[in-house]
Design brief:
Largest sheet: 6 strands, parallel
Order of helices and strands: HEHEHHEHEHEHEHH
Strand order of the largest sheet: 1-2-3-4-5-6
Radius of gyration: 16 Å
CATH class: Alpha Beta
Distance between the termini: 23 Å
CATH topology: TIM Barrel
Structural class: alpha/beta
Strand content: 5-15%
Oligomer: single chain
CATH superfamily: Metal-dependent hydrolases
Number of strands: 6
Number of domains: 1
Helix content: 40-55%
């Protein structure tokens, strides 16, 4: 986290998110400290950390996020590699317990993207990104991509997953520009939704 914070101080266009260990006995205090140092929110990578998003150990982190109105980015979907800690059932438990939590769901919740997006009808704080979903291993139906972004235009943000993915940032931007989204939708997708979620002015 210290390394990432230093990068963000050098390059203000970086919006840093803190990842903390769920077994930290002072997780709540650590989360408070991260926000006081300039982190915009938190990230939980369930498969990497081997923790369900609904794991009780994460409750102090979620409570701090809610208290400060900060988002938590969570890789909660089963793609590209299923895990016992991933999936819509785990995620539903989280949002049912913390309906006011702002959650940024990575990769559009793939592979259970329809079930994840359906939750937006009930929970106002859910947002999604398109990171890596154009990759063949993710399997998103590209013929439905444009209509999906339009249908959930207030909840979906541009994402690339670079530098993990092959290609360049420009390649990913061109892919989504080729969808020829309506101007207002494109503005929300490429800019406004992220600004809104992360409180960037």
């Amino acid at each position: 986290t210290a390394w990432l914070l230093e990068l963000a101080r050098r390059w203000p266009q970086i919006v840093p998110l803190a990842t903390l260990h769920p077994d930290d006995p002072a997780l709540g205090m650590a989360a408070e400290h991260c926000l006081s140092q300039g982190f915009a929110g938190f990230k939980v990578h369930c498969a990497v950390q081997m923790v369900s998003p609904a794991d009780p150990r994460l409750e102090p982190l979620y409570e701090v996020a809610i208290a400060h109105d900060r988002p938590v980015l969570i890789h909660a979907g089963t793609a590209p590699h299923p895990s016992p800690v991933l999936g819509i059932d785990h995620f539903k438990k989280l949002v049912e317990r913390y309906p006011r939590l702002k959650v940024h769901v990575a990769h559009l919740g793939m592979w259970e993207w329809e079930a994840f997006l359906a939750l937006t009808e009930k929970y106002e704080g859910l947002f999604f990104d398109t990171a890596a979903i154009i990759d063949r291993h993710m399997g998103f139906p590209q013929d439905r991509l444009r209509l999906t972004i339009i249908a959930y235009q207030d909840r979906i943000m541009f994402g690339s997953d670079l530098p993990i993915m092959e290609g360049t940032y420009a390649d990913f931007i061109r892919h989504f520009l080729a969808l020829d989204l309506p101007e207002e939708v494109a503005r929300k997708f490429f800019r406004d939704n992220a600004l809104k979620l992360y409180g960037i002015r």
